[in-house]
Amino acid sequence: MKMKTSLSQDSILLILILNVFKVVSNQPLHLSPYLEQGNIETAKRDSLVNDPTRVIPTSYSGLFTVDEVLKNHLWFWFIPAINSDPKAPLVIWLTSGPGCSTMLNMFYGNGPLKLTKNSNGNDSYERRVNSWAQTFSMLYIDNIVYTGYSYSDSGNKGIKTTKDYYTQDLYSFVQQFYKMFSEMKEKDLYVGGVGSAFKYAVSLAYKIHEDLQAKRDNILLKGIYAGSPLLDGRTQLRHIYEPFYSLGFISYKQMINYTQEDEMLNNLNEKKHYLNLESVIYKMSNLSLENINTFTLSPDTEINNVMSTDAIKSLLHVGNNTFELCNLEIYTQSADDVYQPFQTTELVTLLENYKVLLFTAVFDGIISSPGLEAVLMDMPWSMQSAYNDSVRKVWREDNVVKGFYTYVGNLCRVVIHNAGMHITNDQLNVTVQMMEDFWHYGCISNTPQ
């Protein structure tokens, strides 16, 4: 793959030398054996992403074996904070779908890279001026196997779509990550992601919390966060038509009819109901559910093109593995788990002990504010009454409205203005400021604790 700026002769020579000395390999880089043998520095050296163009910031990539029986291998891309702040927290990012790679957010969200075209018109990438990785050490993890470059030696038997199993894999991953990057254990940890991945984040954070309570670990877990979080599919999707009605896309009669049809589908087959909702709403509105204010869709094809090149595979140490941006089979298998209500006790426990940030977007056609609010207002935590009686505050700067927020107890609830489902892409700088405020103050900066 050619970069937007042409490679110098020295860079081309360096790539040739790296090829000769086996930095480029047909085999993916498995790091677990290094850790078992205590070869930590070798693991870091071999996983370093050596981009001769320096478009990609200093980072590390490889796979951890998280299930020795099934031989499940989860791929990651770790980018230490670009600003080199010694206090920069570690932020784990997980992606929804379910079954989609975190590379969707790397190139079309909060990552330090964005898509472009090179001089030949081919899909390529360049450095963003700003990103979450500027301030935070970002750890992008592709779970479940067969998303991104993650895979299993057991084939489809390795796919885990139920809570206990994917939590076990993620927990194993985190333990190995801290063994390899022990310096990160001194940093604050925030776990989160987008959409249904919030279930993964809550389950992982709760497992870490249990270890902390039992004094089995000393991870500095400080909070969890999620954009467009799917907490309770049954409840949230029941309110899915309300934003369309309030914005004038459908009439009151249409909203009632569609809601009644959904209730019938829901009673017949919850899984079928969940899988068919997207096509039903698209036919209803002829709009993209990703952002009902635009016809723009996420650049899935372009990301696949970039991530499937020999050059990027070489840099990321994934051998000949096939890249899967979104795996339809995992999406289908996960529908039952996604649609089930949250383990409320886990989320409530985390709410009582750690900071929690939940943010949605005004123009998200799937995870809307009314649906999320219906879940939050019925969640039995100590500040439920205070939250239910709270009022939104306007988040503005220089007369520009960035969004709206509520801050009650440990819960920071934010609604981002002028954004759709891909909030970090639509309003990147706003979400950077939001995360920095969440880190320092617990919510938007004019409400510090």
UniProtKB/TrEMBL annotation:
GO BP field: proteolysis
Signal peptide segment: 1-25
Protein name per its UniProtKB record: Probable serine carboxypeptidase CPVL
Pfam families the record matches: Peptidase_S10
UniProt similarity note: Belongs to the peptidase S10 family.
Organism annotation: Biomphalaria glabrata
GO molecular function, one term: serine-type carboxypeptidase activity
Entry superkingdom: Eukaryota
Record keywords, A-Z: Carboxypeptidase, Glycoprotein, Hydrolase, Protease, Signal
Entries under InterPro entries matching the protein: AB_hydrolase_fold, Peptidase_S10
